[in-house]
Automatic annotation (TrEMBL):
Belongs to the LysR transcriptional regulatory family. Residues 10-67 form the HTH lysR-type domain. It comes from the Bacteria. Gene3D superfamilies: Periplasmic binding protein-like II, Winged helix-like DNA-binding domain superfamily/Winged helix DNA-binding domain. CDD domains: PBP2_CbbR_RubisCO_like. This is LysR family transcriptional regulator.
Length: 324
């Protein structure tokens, strides 16, 4: 007896739900990503399994196991959705407009850069729907692993051969103190002088914190006094309140430096440099809109570098590429 024609039994919604479960390897996380209830996700997968006459997932205790049929279907679904995105782009071009969706995640330090890019992108392609999620580095890594976004913008890309990345802009990190701080008038202050004060820092794993800790370790200087605060904004307020000193991205404090609310002493080895990069898994086929955005960013690089005055060229002080 021949199998029924799948074209008459499958829906795009079922395939979309399946793709989320396959990527997340979790019904609950897939439901959260799609804005559905977990029973709704379970029902869609059950209907899909009935249509395919094949089991796709199996629970062993609380662990969801992906079965061979699911891996085979996932490859086909990725191809199908890629073709649909290409068709959408072609139809948009025929109609004289570019439409589609672009889902981005950016680490919190990149929030000073990404809006400038998106403003220019949206001005040229107003019909593209852009969604941006700002998160810390740990959350960005989680979203990257779960493939929840088209692109992740971050400054410290994991050492993973399966990731594709493109540097877009230098991230200069500088020492920051309050106006009138003794280091501003000291004769040739050192890193050790700086660390005698309480150093206000982000959470463990933060790109800025990691870059500074790596630098301090290489210089064999001890961080005797640290105080952990949750955000760059909280750290800036802490420095202004004379709670301590900090190392922050220059772009995060440029307004405060210009207005005299904060100051930056001259210390050997600074600024530290990393590059903000766009990142995505190599085996995730970029949608046409994602490819369009990457091409747009490449074209925009000279303007970005001129605007932020942080060109991607060698400069004094430790330099770090996208990878550690």
């Amino acid at each position: 007896m021949s199998r029924p024609n799948l074209l008459n039994r499958l829906t795009f919604r079922q395939l979309q739900v399946f793709q989320a479960v396959h990527r997340q390897q979790s019904y609950s996380r897939a439901a959260e990503q799609l804005g559905l209830t977990q029973p709704a996700v379970s029902a869609q997968i059950r209907q899909l399994e009935q249509a395919l006459e094949q089991p796709l997932f199996k629970y062993a205790g609380k662990t969801l196991h992906v079965l061979p049929a699911a891996d085979a279907l996932a490859a086909s679904v990725q191809s199908i959705f890629g073709q649909v995105s290409s068709l959408q782009m072609e139809l948009s071009e025929l109609a004289g407009t570019i439409r589609g969706e672009l889902n981005l995640a950016a680490v919190s330090t990149a929030q000073y850069v990404v809006p400038h890019i998106l403003a220019r992108f949206r001005a040229r392609y107003p019909e593209v729907q852009v969604r941006l999620r700002v998160c810390n580095r740990g959350q960005a890594l989680e979203r990257l692993a779960e493939r929840r976004d088209d692109l992740v913008i971050m400054g410290m890309v994991p050492e993973d051969a399966n990731l594709a990345f493109m540097p877009i802009l230098d991230n200069e990190m500088i020492p920051v103190v309050w106006p009138g701080h003794p280091l501003l008038t000291a004769d040739s202050p050192t890193l050790e002088d700086f660390t005698r004060y309480y150093v206000l820092m982000r959470e463990p794993g933060s790109g800025t914190r990691t870059a500074f800790e790596d630098f301090v370790a290489r210089e064999r200087v001890s961080l005797r006094h640290t105080l952990e605060l949750g955000t760059n904004e909280a750290i800036k307020q802490g420095v202004m309140a004379h709670l301590g000193v900090a190392v922050l991205p220059r772009l995060a404090v440029q307004l405060e430096l210009a207005s005299g609310l904060l100051a930056s002493p001259t210390l050997p080895g600074f600024p530290l440099r990393r590059s903000w990069c766009t990142v995505h898994p190599k085996d995730r086929y970029p949608t046409p809109v994602t490819e369009l955005f990457l091409r747009f960013v490449r074209e925009l690089l000279p303007e970005l570098n001129a605007h932020f005055k942080a060109p991607l060229v060698p400069a004094p002080g430790p330099s770090f590429a996208c990878t550690p």
